[in-house]
Specification:
Layout lengths: L1 E3 L5 E4 L2 E3 L4 H12 L5 E2 H9 L7 H16 L4 E4 L2 E4 L7 H17 L3 H13 L13 H27 L3 H14 L4 H13 L3 H19 L5 H11 L29 H12 L4 E5 L6 H12 L5 E5 L9 H9 L7 H4 L5 E6 L8 H10 L3 E7 L8 E5 L5 H15 L8 H12 L4 H8 L7 H7 L3 H4 L14 H10 L3 H9 L9 H8 L3 H9 L4 E5 L2 E5 L2 H14 L2 H25 L3 H10 L1 H14 L2 H17 L3 H14 L5 H11 L1 H5 L3 H18 L2 H17 L3 H18 L2 H17 L3 H18 L2 H17 L3 H18 L2 H15 L4 H18 L5 H18 L1 H13 L2 H10 L1
Helix pairs in contact: 1-3, 3-44, 4-5, 4-6, 5-6, 5-11, 6-8, 7-8, 8-9, 8-10, 9-10, 11-12, 16-17, 16-18, 17-19, 22-24, 22-25, 23-26, 26-27, 26-28, 26-29, 28-29, 29-30, 29-31, 30-31, 31-33, 33-34, 34-35, 34-36, 35-36, 36-37, 36-38, 37-38, 38-39, 38-40, 39-40, 40-41, 41-42, 41-43, 42-43
Length: 911
C-alpha cells in the first residue's frame, strides 16, 4: 500500500484506490500523514481538523474517524499512544517523503556539476504531484493551514527544475513555460531571474530587459520594494553582455524521430507519468503489455515524447516482421547505424530511448534486446507486446483499460470527429457511459464504436452491444489492417497461440466474473502452464480477491472466445461442466451456512462466484435441466436473502417453479418452501402462503415431518403479516413443539425469536424478553450467527420498549457487528434504525442521517417496513421532524441515503 497527499488525499494498494470516507475522516488521515509517522496528540488533531471552534462532540467524532480509517487501512496502521495517534509508515511509502528525498538528491547532483542526473531526479519528484495539494479537502481547516506549505515545496522544486534545465542548455524550450509561471507567481524573485536569463540565452536580449523592467514595475508598484540585488546584477550583466551568462554547450547527439499520431492522446496522464518515472529511474527496459486495443503503441509514443527533452527517441515498427532474425537489422536501420559487426558494438554511447512496437510475434528475438542493453549502458527501451519478453532487466507494465471518465472523454472526442454536432447530454450521457463500460474501456473498441456515431445514436448502439464485435468494424483506413476491426485485432492474438492454448482460451468463455485455478482445471481441463501462457499473452488477467487469486477476461475478449467456443462444437460440454461444478460449489457453501461451520467463508465464496451462478442458472433454464436449476436455486436461497437480492431470487424461483411441475416432488417441495421467503419479505403475504401451503402438502405426502414443521412456522409468519397474531402464536407453538421433538435447534431458535417478536407486538415485553433470551442462548450454543443477529436485534427493540436503553444499545451493537461481518443487509438496515431511535433525543441530526441510510438500504434490497416496525419508524420520524423541522429532516435523510454505509455503521457502533 502507498499513501499520497500531493493532490487528493488518497491511499492506494495493488488492488487500486481505497475509499477513505467523508472529508473530516480524510482530513484526519492527512494530518497524520503530514506528521510523517510521528505521534499527534488528540487535542492537536482536533485543532487541525475543526480549527479554533471545535464542536463539543469533536473528540468522539475523532474516535469514529480513526475507527473508520482503521477499517479501511488495517487496524495495525494507526497506533494509539496514550492520548495521541500515530500512523505507521514504511520507508518510501508516503509520496511527500519520496518527493522531499528526490529534491534533496537533485540539489546535490546539481551542486556537484551533474545536471543530467539531477534532471531525472527532479522530474521524478514533480511527477508525484497530481493537482493542488489537499484539493479534495478545500475549505477544511487543515487544508487552509497546510496547503500553502505544500505548494511552497512544489514551487521550490519547479525552480530547481528550471535551474537544471538552464544548466543543460534547454533555455529555448524553457522560456515559454517560465513566462506562464511568472504570470501565475509574479512576486517570486527566482522565477523572474530564470525567465530573464532564459530569454537572454535564447538570443532575445531586448525581451530579457523588458522582462526585468516588468518585474521592477510589479514589485515597486504593488509591493513598494526594489528588485533583489541578484536580479539587479543580472540586468547589469546583460547590458554588458557578460560572457558568464552564456549558455553551456549542448553535446551533439541523435535527434528524436517518432511517428506523429493522427489524433491527440486522451487520458493516460497517470500511465505516462508512471512509465516515464520508471525509465528515469533504474528501469532500462519497460514492456507495455495488454490485449490488443488497449493503446500500448499510443502510450509508448506519449512516453517517448515526454522524455524527448532528456532522451532522443527512435521508433521501430515490428508489426510486419515475422522472422526474429530481422529484429537487429530493423533496430540498426532506425538508429541510422552503418557498417559491419555486432549491432551492440555499433550502438551510440550517448543516452537514447528505443521504442520497439509489436514484439509479440517475435519473442524468440528477446535476447537481441538483452544484448543491446548490455552493449550500451545509456540505452533505454520501451517495448509493446501482448506478452512479456521475459528478460532479467525487464519491468513489465500492464496497460489498464481506460477508467470510465477517460473512456467517455475519448468516445466523445472521436464521435465529434465524425459528427461535429455530437453532445453527450441528458439521457445520451447515460448511454455513452454504458457503451464505455460494456466495451471495458478499451481505446480501440471505443474508437471503433465512436466511428458509428454518424449512423447510430448512443441509445441505439447500446442495443447492439450484445453483438459488439459486429458493431466494431468501422476503423479508419489509415490504421493497420489488424486494427480496423476489433475482430481482426483479436484474430491477430489468437493466431499466435498454440493449439492447447486456443482450446483453453475458448473454454474459458463459459466463466462470468472470473474463476479460480480449481474451476479452470475442473471445467476447462487447463494446466497452470497453459493458464500462465494466456496471462502472459494478455488474454487473461489475474485478479487478487479476498478469497484468493482469480482469473478473468475483459468482456470484449470473452465474447470473442465464446464465438471460438461455438465454432469448436464444444460449447454444450463446457457449459454442462460449468453448471455441474458451480452446483457443487453452491451446495457445499449452503451446507456450511446451514451447519454454521464456516458461514463467513461460505458467503465470501458465494459472493465471488455470483456471476458464475447466474450463468449456470441461465444455461440450465435454457437447456431444460430443471433438476439442476432447482438444486442451484435452493442452494443459493439463503445467500440471496442475506445479500438482499430479493427481486432476483423471486424471479428465479418463480421461473423454475413454473417449469418444474413434473420434477421430483421432494426437490420441488424444497424449492417451494424457499421460494416463499422472497415474496414474503417484499410484502406479498398471499403469494408466500400459496407457496408454503403447497410445500407443506407435498412434504406431508412424502412423510417428511421436519420440513412440514418448517412450513408450519413459515405460515405463522404469514399470519403475522395478515394481522392474525393469535393464529401466529398457535402455529409457532406447534412448530416449536415439533422442532424440540425432532432435535432441530436451528429452527427452534428462529421460532422462539419470532414468538418473542409477537409478544413484543402485543406489548407483553417481559414475555418477549424471555422468548428472545432463550433463542439467543440456543443460537450462541450452536453458533448460528445469522439467526443470532436477528434475535439480538429483536431483544434490543424489546429492551427499548422496557426503558432499558443501555442494554438495548449493547445488544444493537452486537447485532450490527454480526450483520456487518456477514453482510446481512436487511439486519444492518434494521439496526441502523434502532441506533437512530437510541440517539434521537441527544443527537437528532445523526439520527436523521442514520434513518436515511436505513431507508436507502431497505429500498436497495426491496423491503418495505410493515406492522409495528413501520409504526415505530413513523413515530421516530415525527419526533425528529418536531425537533429539526421537516425541511432539515428531509435534508438529513437524503444525506444519510448518499453517505458511505461503512462510515454510518462505524459511527453507529461508536455511539
Amino acid at each position: 500500500m502507498e499513501f499520497r497527499v500531493l493532490g487528493p488525499v488518497e491511499a492506494r494498494s495493488e488492488a487500486g484506490s481505497i475509499a477513505l470516507g467523508r472529508p473530516k475522516q480524510r482530513a484526519v488521515l492527512a494530518a497524520l500523514l503530514l506528521r510523517g509517522g510521528e505521534a499527534v496528540p488528540r487535542d492537536r488533531l482536533v485543532d487541525l481538523i475543526w480549527g479554533e471552534r471545535p464542536p463539543g462532540s469533536a473528540v468522539a467524532s475523532l474516535q469514529v474517524y480513526v475507527h473508520g480509517l482503521r477499517q479501511a487501512l488495517g487496524a495495525e496502521r494507526i497506533e494509539t499512544r496514550g492520548q495521541a495517534y500515530r500512523l505507521r509508515l514504511d520507508p518510501g511509502e508516503l509520496d511527500l517523503q519520496r518527493f522531499e528525498q528526490l529534491v534533496t538528491r537533485a540539489e546535490r547532483e546539481l551542486a556537484a556539476g551533474r545536471p543530467e542526473g539531477a534532471a531525472g531526479l527532479v522530474r521524478d519528484a514533480l511527477s508525484l504531484w497530481r493537482g493542488p495539494p489537499l484539493a479534495d479537502l478545500a475549505g477544511e481547516p487543515l487544508a487552509d493551514a497546510e496547503a500553502g506549505r505544500l505548494e511552497e515545496l512544489r514551487l521550490h522544486a519547479l525552480e530547481l527544475r528550471n535551474e537544471i534545465e538552464l544548466a543543460l542548455g534547454r533555455h529555448d524550450a524553457l522560456a515559454p513555460e517560465l513566462e506562464a509561471l511568472v504570470a501565475e507567481h509574479p512576486y517570486r524573485d527566482r522565477l523572474r531571474r530564470q525567465h530573464v536569463l532564459a530569454l537572454y540565452r535564447a538570443g532575445r536580449q531586448k525581451e530579457a530587459l523588458e522582462a526585468y523592467q516588468a518585474a521592477r514595475h510589479t514589485l515597486v508598484d504593488e509591493l513598494g520594494i526594489e528588485p533583489s540585488p541578484e536580479l539587479r546584477e543580472l540586468e547589469r550583466a546583460i547590458l554588458r553582455q557578460d560572457p558568464a551568462l552564456s549558455a553551456p554547450d549542448r553535446p551533439p547527439g541523435l535527434e528524436t524521430r517518432l511517428p506523429v499520431p493522427p489524433t491527440p492522446l486522451v487520458g493516460r496522464a497517470l500511465e505516462v507519468a508512471a512509465v516515464s518515472a520508471l525509465l528515469r529511474g533504474q528501469a532500462r527496459l519497460v514492456t507495455l503489455t495488454g490485449p490488443g486495443g488497449t493503446g500500448k503503441t499510443r502510450l509508448a509514443l506519449a512516453v517517448a515524447e515526454e522524455l524527448s527533452g532528456e532522451l532522443p527517441a527512435r521508433f521501430v515498427d515490428l508489426s510486419s516482421l515475422h522472422d526474429p532474425e530481422l529484429v537487429a537489422q530493423s533496430v540498426g536501420e532506425a538508429l541510422g547505424l552503418e557498417g559491419e559487426g555486432a549491432l551492440a558494438e555499433r550502438l551510440p554511447r550517448e543516452p537514447v530511448l528505443l521504442v520497439l512496437d509489436n514484439f509479440e510475434q517475435l519473442l524468440p528475438a528477446a535476447p537481441v534486446v538483452a544484448e543491446l542493453l548490455a552493449g550500451s549502458p545509456a540505452l533505454r527501451v520501451v517495448a509493446t507486446s501482448r506478452a512479456p519478453l521475459r528478460l532479467s532487466a525487464e519491468h513489465e507494465y500492464p496497460v489498464p483499460p481506460l477508467p470510465l471518465h477517460e473512456a467517455v472523454e475519448l468516445f466523445t472526442a472521436r464521435a465529434r470527429a465524425v459528427d461535429p454536432s455530437f453532445r453527450p447530454t441528458n439521457g445520451r450521457a447515460d448511454s455513452v457511459a454504458e457503451i464505455c463500460a460494456r466495451l471495458d474501456g478499451l481505446p480501440l473498441a471505443l474508437e471503433l464504436a465512436a466511428a458509428r456515431a454518424k449512423l447510430l445514436p448512443p441509445e441505439a448502439m447500446v442495443g447492439r452491444l450484445e453483438r459488439s464485435l459486429e458493431l466494431l468494424t468501422a476503423g479508419a483506413r489509415d490504421l493497420p489492417a489488424r486494427q480496423r476491426t476489433l475482430q481482426a485485432t483479436l484474430d491477430w492474438s489468437y493466431e499466435l497461440l498454440d493449439p492447447g492454448e486456443r482450446e483453453l482460451f475458448a473454454r474459458l468463455a463459459v466463466f462470468q466474473g472470473g474463476c479460480t485455478v480449481e474451476a479452470v482445471e475442473a471445467i476447462a481441463g487447463g494446466s497452470l502452464d497453459l493458464l500462465g501462457s494466456l496471462v502472459d499473452e494478455s488474454l487473461l488477467r489475474r485478479i487478487d480477491s479476498p478469497t484468493g487469486p482469480r482469473f478473468a477476461m475483459l468482456e470484449t475478449i470473452r465474447e470473442y472466445a465464446a464465438n471460438r467456443l461455438r465454432e469448436s462444437g464444444a460449447e454444450e460440454d463446457a457449459r454442462r461442466r460449468h453448471a455441474a461444478y458451480f452446483l457443487r460449489v453452491a451446495e457445499a457453501a449452503a451446507s456450511s451456512i446451514s451447519s454454521a461451520t464456516d458461514t463467513e467463508g461460505a458467503l465470501a465464496e458465494l459472493d465471488a462466484e455470483h456471476d458464475n451462478f447466474r450463468a449456470a442458472l441461465a444455461w440450465t433454464a435454457s437447456a431444460g435441466e430443471v433438476e439442476g436449476e432447482l438444486r442451484l436455486a435452493v442452494a443459493l436461497s439463503w445467500f440471496w436473502m442475506m445479500r438482499g437480492e430479493l427481486t432476483e431470487a423471486r424471479r428465479r424461483f418463480e421461473g423454475v417453479i413454473e417449469r418444474s411441475a413434473s420434477a421430483d416432488p421432494s426437490l420441488r417441495a424444497s424449492a417451494l418452501v424457499r421460494a416463499g421467503i422472497f415474496p414474503y419479505r417484499q410484502g406479498d403475504a398471499a403469494r408466500a402462503r400459496e407457496l408454503w401451503t403447497e410445500a407443506r402438502e407435498l412434504f406431508l405426502e412424502l412423510g417428511d415431518e421436519k420440513e412440514a414443521a418448517r412450513c408450519l412456522a413459515e405460515l405463522a409468519s404469514v399470519a403475522i403479516a395478515e394481522g392474525d397474531l393469535d393464529r401466529a402464536v398457535q402455529l409457532y407453538e406447534q412448530a416449536a413443539e415439533q422442532f424440540r421433538a425432532q432435535a432441530q435447534p436451528t429452527r427452534l431458535g428462529i421460532v422462539l425469536s419470532n414468538l418473542g417478536a409477537v409478544a413484543n407486538m402485543r406489548a407483553y415485553f417481559d414475555a418477549a424478553a424471555r422468548y428472545q433470551e432463550e433463542a439467543i442462548a440456543l443460537q450462541r450454543e450452536i453458533d448460528d450467527r445469522d439467526a443470532l443477529s436477528i434475535s439480538l436485534y429483536n431483544l434490543a427493540r424489546t429492551e427499548i420498549k422496557r426503558g432499558r436503553r443501555e442494554t438495548a444499545r449493547e445488544l444493537l451493537r452486537e447485532a450490527l457487528r454480526l450483520a456487518t461481518d456477514l453482510g446481512y443487509k436487511e439486519v444492518i438496515a434494521h439496526c441502523l434504525q434502532g441506533a437512530a431511535e437510541l440517539v434521537a433525543e441527544r443527537d437528532p441530526e445523526w439520527a436523521g442521517r442514520a434513518c436515511g441510510a436505513s431507508l436507502a438500504l431497505f429500498d436497495e434490497i426491496g423491503v418495505s417496513l410493515a406492522g409495528d416496525e413501520a409504526e415505530d419508524y413513523r413515530d421516530l420520524r415525527g419526533r425528529l421532524a418536531g425537533e429539526l423541522g421537516e425541511r432539515r429532516l428531509n435534508e438529513l435523510l437524503a444525506e444519510g441515503g448518499e453517505a458511505s454505509r461503512d462510515a454510518i455503521v462505524a459511527e453507529a457502533l461508536a455511539r
